[in-house]
Amino acid sequence: MAVIPTLGVNIARLHESVSSLVRTDTTCRLALIIVWNDPRQPVPKFDEVTVLEPGMNLGFPGALNHARRRIDAEFLWVMQDDVRVAPDCLDNLLRRMSAPDRPALVAPVYLDPDGLIPGQSRGGIVGPDGKMESRIPAESIAPEYFDRRQRMDWVASSGSLARLSAWDSVGGWDPDFYPVIWSDVDFGFRLTRAGFVVALEPDARIEHDINGSTPSLLAHHLFARNGERFRFKNFPAETAGDSLPTDGDRPDANIGVDDAQARQVARAAGLALLDFAAYASAAWQHQERKIRSMGVNAPVDEGQ
C-alpha cells in the first residue's frame, strides 16, 4: 500500500508522483491512496487510486495515520507528492525488509548529478541531548560503497517502506509534528528506541524535489520549532527548566469544547497554515529577488 499525503497544490507534480508509482515493476500487489489535505481544492481525477478526504489539513504525519486506520496490509509505502520512484524501487526495499535483521523501516536514496548519494541526506544519529549528532551518509558516497549495516536512529520518510506491525507497536506517527518536518526523525527514533532496526537501501532509488511542497520560509520555521518539540518530547530530563507550551501544560484548556467545535478549529488552523505557506513563499522569493537585484551575494537572513 502506497500512501501520498498532499502537502502542496502542485497538481502536475502530484500526477508525476502517481505515474511513477503506477510504473512500479513488482510481482506484489500495490494499491495507491492519496490523502487530500486541502478541502478547498477540487480533487483531481486519478485512475486506480483511492482518494481519502478527511475534510481538513491533517498534515503529513496525521494523514499517514488516517490512511493506516483504513488499510489492511503488511507494509505501508510512505510517499510524498514531490517524490518519483524508480520502477524497481519497491522490490529493492522489500528485499532489504527480508534481511536477517528484519528492519521496521527502510528508506531509498536519491543520487546527485555525479551519481552519488549526497552527504547528510537520508538519515542520522540523535545525540544524548536530543540534538542531531550526525547525519548519514557523512559525506557524498557512491551507492555501491554505502554500508548497509550502518546504525542509525532515523531515516528520511520520502519513499520509505514501513512494517506495519512495528508501526502499530510504537503508536504510529505523531501528528504534533504538524504539518511536516521532524516527524520522520521522531518516528524512526521511537522505532529504534523500542529495539527495531531502521535502514537505508542504496539500490532503491527515488527522485525528490527537496522541500518541493514546503515553502522555504515555512521550512526554516518548522525545522526550528519541531526540532525543539522533538527534544522536549523525547528528552524531558535534558530539557527540564526550558519552556515549550504543550497541551499537557493546560489540562483544562478544552473543557466545554465538543468534537464538532474541535474539528472546526482544527480545520480553520489547517487552512490558515496553507494560506501562510503561500504568503511566506511569496515573501521569501521577493526578498531573494530584491537582494539579487542589488548585486549582493550575501545569504538571506533566515530569521526575518
Could you characterize what this model shows?
This protein has helices at residues 11-22, 59-68, 89-97, 164-169, 183-193, 216-234, 259-293, and strands at residues 2-5, 32-35, 49-52, 75-78, 83-85, 105-109, 123-126, 132-136, 154-155, 161-163, 198-208. By secondary structure, the protein is α/β, with parallel strands linked by helices. It folds into two domains: 2-208, Spore Coat Polysaccharide Biosynthesis Protein SpsA, Chain A (Alpha-Beta Complex); 216-293, no CATH class. A hairpin with a 5-residue loop joins β7 (123-126) and β8. The chain is globular and about 50 Å long.
Query: Which CATH class of the largest domain applies here?
Result: Alpha Beta
**Helical region count?**
7
CA distance, first residue to last residue: 41 Å
Return the CATH architecture of the largest domain.
Alpha-Beta Complex
The succession of helices and strands, N to C, reads: EHEEHEEHEEEEEHHEHH
Shape: globular
Model regions low in confidence, pLDDT < 50 over at least 5 residues:
245-257, 296-304
CATH topology of the largest domain: Spore Coat Polysaccharide Biosynthesis Protein SpsA, Chain A
Total tally of structural domains: 2
**What's the story with the biggest beta sheet?**
8 strands, mixed
The count of DSSP E runs of length 2 or more, i.e. the number of strands, is 11
Mean pLDDT: 86
State the assembly state of the protein chains: single chain
Question: What strand order characterises the main sheet?
Answer: 3-2-1-4-10-6-11-5
Q: What's the gyration radius in Å? A: 20 Å
Proportion in β-strands:
15-25%
Helix content: 25-40%
Which structural class fits the helix and strand makeup?
A: alpha/beta
